[in-house]
Amino acid sequence: MRTTQDTFHLAVPALDLDEAFAFYVTGLGCKLARRYGDRITLDFFGDQVVCHLSEKIDQEPELYPRHFGVTFHDREDWERLLRLARLRTLRFFAEPFHRFEGTAEEHRSFVLADPSNNLLEFKYYDDPRMMY
Questions:
Q1: Does residue 132 register a pLDDT over 90?
Q2: Which domains does the chain have, with CATH numbers?
Q3: pLDDT, position 9
Q4: Is the pLDDT of residue 42 over 80?
Q5: Largest Cα–Cα distance of the chain, in whole Å?
Q6: Which residues contact 6 (CB under 8 A, 6 or more apart)?
Q7: Taken in order 129, 10, 88, 109, is the CA torsion positive or negative?
Q8: How far apart are CA 108 and CA 128, in angstroms?
Q9: Which residues of 56-75 are buried (b: 16+ CB within 10 A; e: fewer)?
């Protein structure tokens, strides 16, 4: 069973590691853990994302079914990241939107696209029981 000491790991393709660094570290504020000639490893909000150098990227990404991100427990954290993304002029794939209004699953979301067209969704549920 996973504990708080364990880390979720996700690997994504990156056309250019300098661009990936600029987006994830300089833009989003992720911490660089390691850098090699063919990848960068990041502390992505407490989990591990590895950007592997690759020419196999999605030229025309669609949000469903492939994306990843963070579901925030506190709305203030979600809003803080949204302000940061705007301030640092990160590329929005989808501007902030509201889903399932009036239901238990109601949440706010926005989607960023990294330089290699990986889509990152950040959301906040009004009812924290709906996070999973």
A1: no
A2: 9-54+62-131 (3.10.180.10)
A3: 95
A4: yes
A5: 49
A6: none
A7: negative
A8: 12
A9: eeeeebeeeeebebbbbeee
* Interstrand relation of 47-53 and 68-72 (parallel, antiparallel or unpaired): unpaired
Q: What DSSP character marks residue 90?
A: P
Distance between first and last Cα of the chain: 17
pTM of the full structure = 0.93
Query: Are 114 and 120 in contact, with CB atoms under 8 Å apart?
Result: yes
In whole angstroms, give the CA distance from residue 12 to residue 22: 15
Output the pLDDT for position 39.
97
Question: How many Å apart are CA 125 and CA 103, to the nearest integer?
Answer: 11
Nearest Cα neighbor of 50 from 58, 60, 40 is 40
Annotate 25-61 with DSSP letters as a single string: IIIT-PEEEEEETTEEEEEETTEEEEEEE-S---SS-
